[in-house]
Amino acid sequence: MTALTSTPAVTPGTQLTFAHGPSWANRFALAPLTNTQSHADGTLSDDEYRWLEARGRGGMGLTMTCAAFVSPAGQAWPGQLGVASDDHLPGLTRLADGLRATGTTSSVQLHHGGRRADPALSGRPNQCPWDDPKTNSVAMTTEEIQDSVADFVAAAVRAEEAGFDGAEIHGAHGYLACQFLDARNNHRTDQYGGSATNRMRFLVEVVDGIRAATGPDFQLGLRLTPEGSGMTLADGVEVAATMLAAQTLDYIDMSLWDVFMHPRGETGDDDRLLIEHFTSLERGETRLGVAGKVLSASDAAWCLEKGADFVSVGIGAILHHDFASSAVADAGFVAMSRPVTREHLVAECVSPTFIDYLSGGWDDLIE
User: Fold this and answer.
1) What residue segments make up the domains of the chain, in order of their start?
2) Given CB 3.0 to 4.6 Å as the disulfide criterion, which of 80, 289, 297, 304 pairs with 333?
3) 8-41 core/surface letters (b: 16 or more CB in 10 A; e: else)
4) Residue 313 C-beta-side C-alpha neighbours within 13 Å
5) In this predicted model, what pLDDT tens digit does every residue of 261-271 receive, in sequence order?
6) Quick one: DSSP state of residue 279?
7) Arch. (CATH architecture) of 29-114+141-260+270-361
8) pLDDT, tens digit, for every residue of 261-316?
């Protein structure tokens, strides 16, 4: 009689494979954390290099850059990394080479601020799907939207040329790609507004354009917001389900704020956690990641038990450059309590510039 065998349980240390590009050594990804430590022109600084190389060395399955602007008009803050010009290529190549040497998979997050860009940096009014005087934003023409799609595609090609394993499109948190999804405000009468299909068109064209312009081993992801930024939970689920069904992405990275929370909006009699609204979706070969207050090995394991394929780590990776390897090695690993000293963060390859940024918005992080 043949003994029955069971499928081994997926753990945070389990390798993750994709339709395109390399496998990740484990289920941990570095969240694309704003850090303001690149040079004013968007070229890579030594501080940014050290921050990211240390996380690759610390065992992250995927090490991703912060949001990197794809065109000067989309730059949202000083010190933002750029992937908008061939002038950015030397630094990007250095970073891709350095990350490869650590054994991590590497990615650039592609970003345009839209109405959340900084006109003082670009020298022109912000671009947005609609006129928004409160943010000095003017509605993009159809041609300008198509130019922006081309900017995202060119940035991905540039990332591939630099040697990165892939790219992630920033479609979350109310930046340009997310602004197109905003049913509250995007009432454009061309093909980029109004219906859900039209509001998703910008994202679909960016994804399809990148897939067509890059090689078969280039890994492509998308970060999405589940609700908020002019979107209901139903909107967020519809966008995620549509992009999963297309099977053109390698993964979707859901930025949940808190993986343990319930939805903020109305859900009727549905009492599921926010994470469950997305892990329940059919995904085929596309992987699904979640982010939000994953601070221990057990937090990560819980997300995987709920059906996620990987977790993105932010605060934990700031506190510990080796969060991933520590959590893989020890199922009881928990990130240290906060606040911590500036000296601790410097020892973890967090630059003084990054620490100053964190001090301005993370009240409980630094003593």
Assistant:
1) 29-114+141-260+270-361
2) 297
3) eebebbbebebbbbbebbbbbbbbbbbbbbbbee
4) 37
5) 999 988 888 99
6) H
7) Alpha-Beta Barrel (3.20)
8) 999 988 888 999 999 999 999 999 999 999 999 999 999 999 999 999 999 999 99
